[in-house]
Amino acid sequence: MARPNVLLIMADQLSALATSPYGNREVLTPHMQALAERGAVFQHAYCNYPICVPSRMSMLTGRLPASIGAWDNGAELPASTPTFLHHLRLAGYRTLMSGKMHFVGPDQLHGLERRLTSDIYPANYNLYRPWTEQGNPPRLANTSMAMGVKTAGVRSWTHQLEYDEEVHFRALEQLRHFGMEHQRRAASTASSAASGSGGAGRDDARPWFFCASYTHPHDPFHITQEYWDRYEGRDITLPAEAPPDHTPHESDLWVRSYCRTDDVGITRDDVYRARRGYYAMTSYFDDKVGDLLRELDRFGLRENTLVIITADHGDMCGEHRMWFKRSAREWSARIPLLIAGPGIAGGHAAGENVSLVDLYPTLLSLLGLDWPVDLPHEMDGHDLSPLLAVPANGSSGRARPDGAIVENYGAGTMKPVRALAAHAEGPHGRRRYKYIYVHDLPPQLYDLDDDPGEWHNLADHPAHAPVAAVLRDRLLAGWDGAEIERRVIASQHQRDFVKRALNAGEWTSWDYRPEFDAAKGAPRP
User: Fold this and answer.
1) CB 332 within 8 A of CB 50
2) Which of 262, 278, 280, 505 is least surrounded by Cβ atoms within 10 Å, i.e. has the fewest?
3) Is residue 354 domain-shared with residue 315, that is, in the same domain?
4) Backbone angles phi, psi at 174, to 5 degrees
């Protein structure tokens, strides 16, 4: 059989905890559920940064944010940095995408042959705020983001819907193009076999990698009546109230302050409507997943297509009185990671802690691709194929430690943040823990098995001192918070200088502008 095709379907700001494959029985995600049942679910998958740009940069490069200077939403990925898109392209894959990837800077491809749509956000340096300008605690200049919670509910149409409908139209069109190529090649092969002659197809016979990346369910929580009504009469659990002895960590207060949700008087009814809107937007994304998978079936592409569903980060959805992302806590940092396709057993659940940097080496292994001998092996990710109960085809040869690292250096923080989710031996046996380090502030340690809500900080508990020390040493190995802080601030000042210069005089946009000729059908590389 030929090398598998790859269909990567991405959501923006979708928490794993808001999907049915991860145990949420209130949200309606039947298509993700069906894919999980015929493939594998990574039960404890994390983003490596709870904001769009750095998370996606880490996913594509297989490297943690600090190692590539992915400090915030205004960070530029150098064009010379290898991504798995470059790797697949060199191996003979077509590499295309429709939708959001949120590249910053003049390179808007990073190994893609073609993008079928523009991005939803501008490619400039404007979507970050230097720490020295945020205030202490950090605060946005207005409450427009917070009002996305207060105003959650039905809209006839939104900018996000307009964008995702274009993304989806182009994605379906491209899959149909792939499908027709596949059917023509199959017919040509059959005809050649019958006649005894060699077939010569005009279609591109290369395998393909295609990414369909949507902006839903990103805030504000506005959705059409159709999706809002799906949740009429359904129970929606609201965030738990804090235990009486709970004291918020200072870094939690930063997130609350930055988004200014505490300034707009959010009520329990607001929380219900926002969570209902978020679930409804998630169902909208899930319907798009169903459409894409039906096209694979319609054209006979499913059997040789690896399907991956994930997101760049989650959304706190009111947990700990926090909204949106920017937190290393579970609702913000946990993401769906579902993989189905050739050689992957259905209904498989992997319980290890993994993250988006693992996707690069996992793809190489599943596609049978070796690491180039002349390229330094600087990847932070590890091959997950052994966790899928399939043999590794590539030559990564690297043992995978259980653990996922989450970093945060962006707007809404005041100091470098690094967290590790991992299994470790504690006073009650082997458990799943999360250790959170915020430079110059007290550490946090949570037993995620006993305390999934992350309410009880065990970092100073004498019985947990050994496991705290083990996780701290592992988390901070090769990472210096003071040096990272210096580098972050220096980068922010440098980019701020360049941004001010580029905004003076004649403006030249870095935004991607796709070319499309309707008379010629789907754009081809």
Assistant:
1) yes
2) 505
3) yes
4) -70, -40
Owner of token pair 């064009």 = 79
pLDDT at 200: 46
Query: pTM value?
Result: 0.95
Distance from the Cα of residue 321 to its chain's centroid: 23
Specify the 3-state DSSP secondary structure of 364. Answer: helix
CB atoms within 10 A of CB 474: 15
102 is catalytic: yes
Active-site entry in 44, 86, 102, 423: 102
Asked if residues 412 and 255 have their Cβ atoms less than 8 Å apart, the reply is yes
- Which residue from 381, 388, 334 is spatially nearest to 358, judged by alpha carbons? 381
Segment 387-434, tens digit of pLDDT: 986 555 554 444 578 999 999 999 899 999 999 999 999 999 999 999
Cis status, amide bond into 391, omega within 30 of 0: no
Closest to 339 (Cα-Cα) out of 360, 308, 383, 294: 308
Using one digit for the tens of pLDDT, what is the confidence trace for 213-246? 999 999 999 999 999 999 999 999 999 999 999 9
Give the separation between CA 496 and CA 486, rounded to whole angstroms.
Answer: 15
Residue 521: per-residue pLDDT: 54
| Final residue in a domain of this structure, among 366, 383, 407 | 407
Q: Are residues 363 and 420 in the same domain?
A: no
The residue from 52, 211, 259, 317 that is catalytic is: 52
Residue 199 forms part of a structural domain: no
Q: What parts of the chain have a pLDDT lower than 70?
A: 1, 191-202, 389-399, 517-525
Pair (376, 412) in one structural domain: no
